[in-house]
Amino acid sequence: MSSTLVAVTGAMSQVVAAIAVVSGGLALAVTRRPGPALGVLLDLLVAAGLLRLVGDPDWQTIAVTGTVVALRHLISYGLRLGERSLEETPRGAPGPTTRPRPPRDIVGRLLRPAWRR
Asked: 67 lies in which domain range?
């Protein structure tokens, strides 16, 4: 692989990671909701990880990118479950009145992009 390609994609992945932190902070400041802000941050970190894979990937880079993707799915799934339980709680009640039903197709929900829901 060309050393120029490795240098450019490495630099761009760092730029995208910095943009991810700034965009996540901005999204949190504007919406005051951690769910969408965390989604923006993690999506851009996945993009930065994929840019690092374009260069000369080694097993450590692949593992880090895979970990970020897995964390993104698990965190967004947990936030969605938390939002549902908060929506089911009546105002002034100490906790949820009904227990949320577990999703039937967990794998399908984890693999479906958030914008298709």
From this structure: 3-116
Question: Residue 97: which residues within 8 A CB-CB, separation 6 or more?
Answer: 88, 89, 90
69-101, pLDDT tens digit by residue? 898 888 878 877 776 666 565 555 555 555 555
- Tokens standing for residue 93: 């009640």
The DSSP 8-state label assigned to residue 97 in this structure reads S
Count of domains forming the chain: 1
Q: Which residue has the higher pLDDT, 113 or 63?
A: 63
**Contact, 25 vs 34, CB < 8 A?**
no
36 contacts 27 by C-beta, under 8 angstroms: yes
